[in-house]
Write a structure and sequence with these properties.
By secondary structure, the protein is of the alpha/beta class. It folds into two domains: 3-252, no CATH class; 258-327, Roll (Ubiquitin-like (UB roll)). It is 15% helix and 27% strand. The chain has helices spanning 116-125, 164-167, 172-184, 219-226, 240-252, 282-286, and strands at 3-6, 23-25, 31-34, 44-46, 53-54, 59-63, 70-72, 77-84, 90-97, 133-135, 139-140, 150-153, 190-195, 206-211, 235-239, 258-264, 272-277, 297-301, 308-310, 322-327. The protein has a seven-stranded mixed β-sheet with strand order 1-14-13-12-15-10-11, sandwiched between helices. Strands 2-17-16-20-18-19 form a six-stranded mixed β-sheet, with no helix packed on it. The longest helix has 13 residues, at 172-184. 42% of the residues are buried. This is NADH:ubiquinone reductase (Na(+)-transporting) subunit A. Residues 115-255 form the NqrA second alpha/beta domain. One of its GO terms (molecular function) is oxidoreductase activity, acting on NAD(P)H, quinone or similar compound as acceptor. Keywords: Ion transport, NAD, Sodium, Sodium transport, Translocase, Transport, Ubiquinone.
Length: 346
């Protein structure tokens, strides 16, 4: 039986706009973008140019510090722009999607017959390694360093966050395959943290159940309560949504960046789950589902606490499985509002 860890400290912020358990398919986005800022500490080296045709899984750039860490296109199509900012900083690489998608064929392999180094090599070549983070520092993991343990959080306790147990229905084999791949890459244990209210059936790993308010679902909090990191130790962490990407890859031999995204917030007409592809433009996901208003609205890729403010015609960031739309809040005119106790605000 799985361990249950009960946490008392924290706070669940009661925001409006929780998604109903219903999934709809988003229309194909015309444009997709890979944004280097989504990956901390990366110095990107772009290896494509405008006019190049790429398949889903074709490398678009790599990390100058670690050339083996590649970043691939989520879709097939034409590279239409490599947008740069001040001092030629790479802002994004934009791909215009093909009507019919083509994929790089990495070949299906028998995961049980691969060594840990071979699994790691496949994940690196597929461009999925950037989704593996290391602690300390929460940066892309160093593939040359073997982790003590690997931690996966299958519970996002942030406001209005997607329910992984619901989203992963029908993908149980992919999730298990992703966990099996992670087991190959460590001599330690793979821990999966879940909510006591929403569990997923898995085997071969350590399942730990958590109960309590946010941030009980944060992987850092879970590490502290399961097996704290000591000086000199390194552990790897992943979101359960990213484990699905790895599992799909080993089950199909191709990179499939499909995501089911929770469209949330008080400014959404019908908060719901939408099936799309990571990096898609927001208009393809939101459609006419945003309320008409005479005040400013804030569009967030992610949740209200740790998400990224984006333009309404911006893109779903690669690591995110949630979109949030809320009032900007710049129309309030309260005298000394910042200094008042706010007893009527919560």
């Amino acid at each position: 039986m799985a361990n249950v860890i009960k946490l008392k400290k924290g706070l669940d912020i009661p925001l409006e706009g929780k998604p109903v358990k219903e999934i709809v398919d988003a229309p194909r986005s015309e444009y997709y973008a890979l944004i280097p800022d989504d990956f901390h500490g990366v110095i990107p080296k772009v290896i494509v140019k405008a006019g190049d045709h790429v398949d889903a899984g074709t490398p678009l750039m790599y990390d100058k510090n670690r050339p083996e860490v590649k970043f691939v296109s989520p879709v097939s199509g034409e590279v239409v722009a490599v947008n740069r900012g001040e001092r030629r900083k790479v802002l994004d690489i934009t791909v215009k999607s093909d009507n019919e998608q083509t994929y790089v064929d990495f070949g299906k392999v028998d995961l049980t017959k691969l060594s840990g180094e071979q699994v790691k090599e496949f994940v690196l070549n597929a461009g999925l390694f950037p989704f593996i983070k290391q602690r300390p520092y929460d940066i892309i993991a160093n593939p040359e360093v073997s982790p003590r343990d690997i931690f996966v959080s299958a519970w996002d306790s942030a406001p209005l966050a997607p329910n992984f147990a619901f989203v992963s229905k029908g993908e149980e084999k992919n999730f298990q395959a992703g966990l099996d791949a992670l087991k190959k890459m460590t001599t330690g244990k793979v821990y999966v943290g879940m909510s006591v209210q929403n569990t997923v059936d898995i085997s071969g790993v350590e399942t730990v159940l958590f109960e309590g308010p946010h941030p009980a679902g944060n992987v850092g909090v879970q590490i502290q309560h399961i097996a704290p990191i000591n000086k000199g130790e390194v552990v790897w962490t992943l979101s359960a949504f990213d484990v699905l990407l790895i599992g799909r890859f080993f089950n199909t031999g191709k990179v499939d960046f499909s995501r089911i995204v929770a469209v949330t917030g008080s400014e959404i007409v019908k908060p719901i789950y939408v099936r799309t592809v990571a990096g898609a433009r927001l208009d393809s996901i939101l459609g006419n589902n945003v309320k008409k208003s005479n005040y400013n609205q804030r569009f967030i890729s992610g949740n209200v606490l740790t998400g990224v403010k984006v333009d309404p015609m911006g893109y779903l960031r690669m690591p995110h499985s949630q979109l949030t739309v809320i009032p900007e809040g710049d129309d309030c005119n309260e005298f000394f509002g910042w200094a008042t106790p706010g007893l009527d605000k919560y």
